[in-house]
Amino acid sequence: MRAREARDGDTWAGCAQTEISAASGVQMNFGGMALQELVHQAASTYSDRTAVCFDEGNGQPPLYCTYETLVRAASELSSFLLLHCDFGEIREVGLYCRPGINLPSWILGILQVPAAYAPIDPDSPPGLSVYFMKKCNLKYILVEKQQINKFTSSYETLLNYDMLAVAHNDLVLLQLHWDNVEVSLMLSDRKEKCEKDKVAKNTNCEKSGEDRAEERLDARQKRCLAYVLHTSGTTGLPKVVRVPHACIVPNIQHFRVLFEITHEDVLFLASPLTFDPSAVEIFVALSSGASLLVVPASVKVLPSKLAAVLFSHHRVTVLQATPTLLRRFGSQLIKSTVLSNSTSLRVLALGGEAFPSLTVLRSWRGVGNKTQIFNIYGITEVSSWATFYRIPEETLNSKCELPVPLGFPLPGTAVEVRGPDGFAIQEGSGQVFLGGRYRVCFLDDEVTVPRGTMRATGDFVTLRDGGMFFLGRGDSQIKRHGRRLNTELVRQVAEGLQQVESCAVTWYNQEQLILFVVSRDGLVKDDIFKELQKRLPSHAVPDELVLVDSLPFTSHGKIDVSELNKVYLNYTNLKSECKLNGKEELWEKLQHLWKSALGLSGDPLQVPGESVFLNSGGDSLKATRLLSQIENLVGTSVPGLLEVILGSSISEIYSHLLQALFPDEDLTCGKNFAPKRKCSDVGNEEETSGKSFHRESVVSLNCDTEMSAFTALSRGSQILSLNTAGFLTELGPCPAACSDLVSQTDIQKMEHLPPAALAGPAKDLACVVAVPGAETPATGPGRVELRVRWRSDAGRCVDASPLVVAVAAAAPSATVYIGSHSRKVLALDLSSGKVKWEQTLGDRVESSACVSRCGNFIVVGCYNGLVYVLRSNNGEKYWAFTTEDAVKSSATMDPTTGHFYIGSHDQHAYALDIYKKKCVWKLKCKGTVFASPCLSLTPHHLYFATLGGLLLAINPATGSRVWRRRCGKPLFSSPRCCLQYVCIGCVDGNLLCFTHFGEQVWQFSTSAPIFSSPCTSASEQEVFFGSHDGSVYCCDMRGQLRWRFETASRVYATPFAFRDCRCGREALLAAASTDGKLWVLDSESGHLRSVYQLPGEVFSSPVVWASRLVVGCRDNHVYCLDLLGGSQK
Question: Where do the Carrier domain residues begin and end (predicted)?
């Protein structure tokens, strides 16, 4: 099919013109009009009529705004912006706000400057918004006053900005500065290059022939641009799209005629500002004298409330929506309200996704419904709509099942279908290209574009019998069982089943075809599979069917594929029979769900309280399903529940739920519940201003990259000594290589401080508390005694493990860095426990700190998804990198490059260059990364583990995968390298050992899950680890048991192997059990040397430095204990 504009008179254009003439006979003029001029024309006629209505859906009277008030408020904002802004060549103003009564006047005020508005979604990931703002080189942004705290807390570490002195009504004007702001969306180098090559290829292809005509659109023209958006980026880099008035005004004018809009109509603002159909909704209404209805997002997500507001309270007449958004109402509500016989809705326009089948559409319509239904199609890159098709009434009333065509080009729009060879076709299948003389937008860095440029859509259609029928997106074409398959076919067939309310299909990890179904009548999965097998070829039958209560959708009203993938990853079959009415029912319901997950539903016997899930026939997949069913039962997510299910008895799961759901008070993490879990939420406080509390200065360093000699110790006996040739002169020759392993015996010589007297209570924040003499240490056989030296209040539970750093310039002093669930990171003097500084982050801290190669920074992850880089001498925030989910993993540093590696719950591994403040690479790990990475220098491999059971070996330089092994069950344990092997614990109770080339050497089995990470001896001939069976194990490197020591409770923490000359140079091992006991063992025999009881649970791993053991506790304190031997007692 040749590219034709709708006014050129071909078959499609003729149909379109007939539709227009039949509608009103109005001839439209597209030349030179701007959106604000359309509104001014309407306001001059309808000044006293309601322009905007805002209804919060809370029973309070709605707010109304007339056209006169709208224009006056917009003019005041325009004057304010002209007074305070110094615009460059391209005039753009950001708008950071929620939907409200003033929203249209703010947009109109920006347009009248004239400038383009660039909406910023407060709920969008900050990293994506910063990428968009910098890509636009946005200089000014208007922030709603009610959102200013959220803005500052979200962007304080990502943006440089000035808050101008003058605010305007409910807005604050900020000026942005982009110097030294590094932004990256962390696509891999290969993918980013592919995206850029693809854009360049499309541009050359699209513009061929047009450059000869010297007509070009120029974004720098003063009145050119209307608004700026970005694409979703789900298939690559998000593209910035600058939309000229000349591109969007034809849509507005044609839809006014096509939908026969009058001043009596009420249109609903269904789309967020960041989705370009919102411009159509706003300006079709406000250019016609009609009323625009605005509701908050909290109402949009409640179908019954939204239906009442739209069709009972305000009698909406025109609704433009995605099919997914309409499906959210449910077929019953659609039929009884939205498309009923008495509905106020005259026009329903569905677009942005594949149109529903006629069978589904008929099932939605009530008897006698007369609503006009349209299929509209377009892409953001040619904002907003390109084609339309009105479903004939006779088609809706017939029983024939025909595909619904995309219809006819809108006036001024050129539509072309190209085959695989890139040439236009008249029949057959190909990709859609869109454009037109004025229907052109500017993508990314484009400043001028030839008129008539055609853009590739990524959508594939088939042309037959003069119609164009949607097949699906290019990325929905997959190859399965050796056959080509369009996943849209599976969705259409499934949705055509009578019992299916709605459905969605994903190609999970490019390995499994998953069908998500919302059923009408609680249909059994087997019944759906039988029907699909009758209707689909064998290669198209899904691998898995997941029943869900509703389909997730994005803020743009489309299916949220990433959320569906999370649903499948967690096996969320939320079809619980009943809800929990009180804690009295909890035990009974938990028993029922337990039996159901294990396939024991018919067993009348009660589950014994000591039953452990994994020992009763459960596995990780069944555990995730049980997790989903429990959370569906109680109606909320329960932090840490998966870990409790995997490692604890049913009675302990019950206790964990009781504490989470029915707290009598704001408890700290008490010692009565051994399974690991999150502490209580800190709350929704905004992140603090970022100023660190500074108690006493550590040694000051001259510059960020100055190399400082230091030695650092972290959990699992990980010792790093950098630039220490001069620092350790008394130890004899020491190479000045970038990384030296230093024995604990050598470290003794760095510090010769006698055990200090217990410090008295400090009078200020985060004080060091003296431990009363009544707390007598329990001492086992042998020559070692543990005695508390100091404890420091961290404000909340301390699950992170300590990092101890001794800087040569500060010898013999050492500093302990540790975070807690109070959001604080503390720097404590090892000798006295005094606070050197503290820094408050944006959320809880479970990640353990890691020191930089230069010694000037520490890196720590946070529950808010940020990885913070703090200056080690004062705690000031140097940089923060944003991931998309909580970061509980601890970073590791590559001493050869200085790069940091860390994982996130967003299922990615990251490599960060903190000196350049950028992400070097990002890798999808196909599972949540809870464990901390491990680095091997020979071979140069980086190891990551996931809760999906994958152990990955990665090239640290490129981020490419070297090999991967499926361990079958979740990996909470962190991998540990030695010269020959890499070891890791698994929740199935096995310690696994692999070569550096991915070959499994051996496995050692315990009787319970392993969450503890392995620790090796200095000789690397032994590996130590703990298990939830309550034991500490020592195996040799052949997988043979050397000894086993039984503690009093589960062992979650990682042991620490060391030699201590104060204790006779014995080879010792420090361990901790969850009941709060600290154990010192002979690492060669496993014999007990000492034990000490702390007053709270311990999940933190101990670190020993110079006969001092440091560990965090769930009584909200960090403890330092002296190891005393022989005469020192």
Answer: 584-661
